[in-house]
Amino acid sequence: MEKNMEMWLEKANVLIEALPYIQRFHGKTIVVKYGGSAMVDHELKKSVIRDVALLKLVGFRPIIVHGGGKDITRWINKVGLETNFVNGLRVTDAETMEVAEMVLNKINKGLVSMMEKVGLKAVGISGKDGSILKVDRKLAGGKDIGFVGEVKEVNTALLDTLLDNDFIPVICPVGSDDEYHSYNINADDAACAIATAVKAAKLVFLTDIEGVYRDPLDHSSLISELSIPEAKEFLASGNVGGGMLPKLQNCISAIEAGVSRVHILDGRIEHCLLLEFFTNRGIGTAIIGDDETRYYTQM
Predict the structure, then answer these.
(1) Model confidence over 193-208: pLDDT tens digits?
(2) What is the rounded distance in angstroms from the CA atom of residue 198 to the CA atom of residue 259?
(3) Structural contact between residues 132 and 144, judged by C-beta atoms closer than 8 angstroms
(4) Of 12, 97, 121, 174, which sees the most CB atoms within 10 A?
(5) What is the pLDDT of residue 156?
């Protein structure tokens, strides 16, 4: 009985620790960029969906933006097309764009189905719907790489309507230009643009690493919180490499454009969203604005 009581008290303490965060972000919009292993591992996928369900039920207003690069590559190879990248961006001719849009829409509806199964009201859309994402053609080092878009404008009318009617928008990163041609958009860029436009309280990137490391070779050097000046100083130090460099730049841009907090999380950890949002220290890296209170200091 005493052992059971300790276990129950521990659960109660977890709930009490979560209370101020629930109060603070109740009714606030959050944007989750969903990608990496959490999208391809079925159990991790279920974990993320359950986390989103809980966030919704305690009063958050989630928007999901997902990628699908691995599936796009797999289907491009299946139909006999070539996959080429320039500066990390997929060269996207008309045929590749057709495959990419098909694959992203398939992923999109699959996520909606999983959300509906746990009782959520979700709507799957692309950035073309309601002209949410208007783009210009994006160049890679001055080179034209086809139908790859850079977001120039976000129309939030449809998103506002869905959120106000208790739906969760699930968005695949396809936008259109002024002539209504379809363009593939980097999912991180799309999430950043959407979070800025809806004035999100939080923007979350689910990745395949724990967060930002002071030393990329030392996984014990995880940084729990970074202010904007600290993040810029860290970028200038040259210690940020690989895919983390553009992600951290996106984080800084989002904060400077009005997003309160940006989180980089390891989507391979079960219930990573709940652990980051509802515990004092969290499990990833949070980049915070100048007016935000620091929860945990490690510099």
Answers:
(1) 999 999 999 999 998 8
(2) 9
(3) no
(4) 174
(5) 96
Locate 272 and state its tokens: 């990573």
Cβ atoms of 36 and 207 within 8 Å: the answer is yes
Which pair of structure tokens corresponds to residue 248?
Answer: 């951290």
> Which residue type occupies 232?
K
Strand partners, 136: 150
Report which secondary-structure segment, H or E, holds 171: strand 168-172
Q: Are 96 and 81 in contact (CB under 8 A)?
A: yes
Q: Is 150 helix (H, G, I), strand (E, B) or coil?
A: strand
Main-chain phi, psi angles of 274, to 5 degrees:
-65, -40
pLDDT at 2: 60
Contact 211, 264 (CB under 8 A): yes
Residues 132, 159 contacting (CB under 8 angstroms): yes
Half-sphere exposure of 2 (CA within 13 A, CB side): 0
Q: Please, which contacts does 243-247 make with residues 24 or more away whose CB atoms are closer than 8 Å?
A: 243/88, 243/207, 244/209, 244/212, 244/216, 246/88, 246/188, 247/188, 247/205, 247/207
DSSP, collapsed to helix, strand or coil, labels residue 73 as: helix
> Regarding beta strands 133-140 and 143-154, do their DSSP bridges make them parallel or antiparallel, or are they unpaired?
antiparallel
8 A C-beta contact, residue 173 and residue 127: yes
The whole-number pLDDT of residue 298 equals: 38
Q: Can you tell me the distance from the alpha carbon of 230 to that of 256, in angstroms, rounded to the nearest whole number? A: 13
